[in-house]
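Structure ticket #2291
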Amino acid sequence: MSEPKKQHFIPQFLLKNFAEGKKKQGRLWTFDKRNGRSYASSVRDTAHENSFYESTNLDNESIEAENLTRFVDDIGASAVREVIGSKRLGLRGKQAVSLSYLMASQMVRVPSERNALDFVRRAMIAKWGADIRFEGDDRPISAYSNEDSKFSSILALKSVPEFAKILQTKIWFLLLAPGNSAFTLSDNPVVKHNYLDYGPRGSLGIRQDGIDIYLPISPKFALQCVCPKMAFLLRRTAVGRKMIKLQRRGWPIPAQPEAVTFVNSLQVIQSERYLYGAKRSDFDLAIDMLREHPDLAIPASEKTVH
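Resolution: structure written out below.
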């Protein structure tokens, strides 16, 4: 009997940037916000699930998407390596496109996306009973399983090119953490914030005005995508004009410690379960946040239904 295939939902090249030690023996720290435990592990044994990109649904249709994610990882790894090596962000051309595909992919290929689908299914059954069904479907929702949710989430990878094109319309910044700060990563590494309040509609859609999107690529660097309208407003301030001047040249924006803390707090809030960092002390913020707000231990996927 063949051993299940170990497949990473965060690419190993990205995890390696947060690992310390020799290249093939590098280890990074993982924090489990469910039980408050932290531990060191190898890159290979971090942020993966067996057969994560393989599924067969109720109709006996099979899907396999590892080759697709491998392609995105290859172009993403090259682009991230260039950015970190040169300490510059290419705003046009191949590098910019590759980074947009990497960020779009990391928005979709994470456990929280499929877990949210399954949570909604279970919540509907709990509220309306096992016989509830979608219009036009001969089978009740209870006939489906988490494997069908997994199948749907893998199928959603088809949206990556569309999401990448939307991200390409944003204003991109490269943030540089100060010497005493470090960015952390999570099992939902692309985190979002919106400065505008959309009320019950939700405000984290990537097309929405006011959206602010982050992806840490190392303890020192994070990518930031800003809504063009917010970037326009930014130009009206002295600090904003300096940022835009650096941005237009592809130079990193020196981030204040408070800005790094803000991005890391989003990683805690929007993560499903795990946080990743280069040092154990990188989780001090998460520990403090969970102490004050224990409900942050609830997976992000279970906060999609109210």
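Closing remark: The chain has a mean pLDDT of 90.
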